[in-house]
Amino acid sequence: MNMPFDLLLGRKTYDIWAAHWPHHGDVWPNVNSATKYIASNRITSGEWQPCVFLGGDVAAKVSELKQQEGPDLHVYGSANLLQTLIKQDLVDAYWLKIYPLTLGDGKRLFVDGTIPAAFKVSDSKVSPSGVIIVNYERA
To answer: Which residues pair with 97 in a beta bridge?
Structure first.
């Protein structure tokens, strides 16, 4: 979390985070200085800067971003955007936090139609409270 990164967010996640993080950036280093790439056909500007809005063919635009030099792109939340990225084979790594808690129905990470892909564990930890933190990279 301390390494430089840029954010790739869906519109809903951006709206929620833009109301919070500008006032609490001391909790998460680099979040406010990171470029926020927002997948949206509804909005084209925002106050939480720096941000770039990606409308139209988001998968093609993300593919172009991945070819450019710069920090890693991180996706948090943004379930609909993530499904698009998975279906277009644009995910290079997963950083999963698995909590020892069940909440009932929710959004699924891997839905019907997910393209099979091989990943390997690159790091894993179990927190004192039982949260499993595991990083997967392309095999």
So the answer is: 133
pLDDT single digits (tens) 29-68: 899 999 999 999 999 999 999 999 999 999 999 999 999 9
CB 54 within 8 A of CB 38: yes
Q: Are 31 and 59 in contact (CB under 8 A)?
A: no
Sign of CA dihedral 53, 58, 60, 65: positive
Together in a domain, 74 and 114? no
* Run of H or E including 20: helix 11-20
If one counts the domains in the chain, the total is 2
Same domain for 38 and 10, yes or no, is yes
CB burial of residue 50 (10 Å; 0-12, 13-18, 19+): exposed
Domain residues for the domain of 24 are: 1-91
Domain with 9 in it: what CATH number? Answer: 3.40.430.10
